Amino acid sequence: METSDHPALADRSFTRKTPGMEFEFRPLAEDDLATMHRWLNDPAVVRWWEGDDVSWEGVVRDYAPDREPDSQEHYIAALDGEDVGWISCGPVADWPDESIEWSELGADEEVGGIDYLIGDPDRRGQGVGSAMIRAFVRDIAFGEHHEWTQVGADPAEDNSGSWGALASVGFRQLGTYGDDDGEWRVMVFDRSQLSSD
Ligand SMILES: CC(C)(COP(=O)(O)OP(=O)(O)OC[C@H]1O[C@@H](n2cnc3c(N)ncnc32)[C@H](O)[C@@H]1OP(=O)(O)O)[C@@H](O)C(=O)NCCC(=O)NCCS
User: Fold this and answer.
1) 130-148: per-residue pLDDT in tens?
2) Nearest residue CA, atom 5 of ligand 1?
3) Residue nearest to atom 15 of ligand 1 (CA)
4) CATH assignment of 13-193, given 3.90.740.10, 2.60.40.10, 3.90.1170.50, 3.40.630.30?
């Protein structure tokens, strides 16, 4: 199956450049799975994946373009031609547990959720992650999903690198919620912030 065959990515323009920045987002393809497997097996990344199966089989099952169809879209972010990270989005309404919690904290009904990582440990903590999120929110999340009025994420309360990156993009905290896996900080960015961004 070609990347573009995945239902969640059908009929999209696949490569988007952010004017003035060098980020390029392309749908995660079969050829990217080995990189994704390596990135996810970094202990500094997998500690935030809450017990997800990051074996080769698990990565293929969850990220391959021909996986069981779902509404999540996975992209590889390239900066100056180098693959630096993964970033993903999908309607929070399709995440059963989160959508109830987010809604109780006041998130919009039409909210898209994002998740992300910077692959090379040496590139973290230098502003690359927040720049990647900023470009993705504008060009892909809002740019490709006209129904979304808001984009959000719910990093772990103790993942200060993640919510720090969101805060520097302009996301605001709606609140926190807890479940069996920990405490989560819900942060959102409104479409109306784009013009003043
Ligand atoms: C989360 C991640 C993508 C952030 O990218 P990054 O490039 O490291 O983050 P940045 O350098 O852009 O940091 C952005 C902001 O967060 C702040 N920040 C970074 N680390 C921080 C920390 N430990 N505590 C508080 N703030 C922090 C920075 O000061 C910066 O704020 P500023 O722009 O106001 O100076 C990256 O660290 C990563 O891949 N982590 C492992 C995977 C992960 O946690 N994914 C998210 C799961 S929810």
Assistant:
1) 999 999 999 999 999 999 9
2) 129
3) 165
4) 3.40.630.30
Q: What is the pTM of this model?
A: 0.90
29-47 tens-digit pLDDT:
999 999 999 999 999 999 9
Name the residue ranges covered by the structural domains of the chain: 13-193
Contact predicate 102/152, CB 8 Å: yes
Which residue from 151, 83, 146 is spatially nearest to 117, judged by alpha carbons?
A: 83
Question: Residue 72: pLDDT band by 50, 70, 90 thresholds?
Answer: very high
Please tell me the total number of residues recorded for the chain in this structure.
Answer: 197
Protein residues whose CB sits closer than 6 Å to any atom of ligand 1: 44-45, 48, 115-118, 124-130, 155, 159-162, 164-165, 168
**Closest ligand 1 atom to 131 CA:** 12
CA angle, 193 then 196 then 197, to 5° = 75
Distance (Å) from CA 165 to ligand 1 centroid: 4
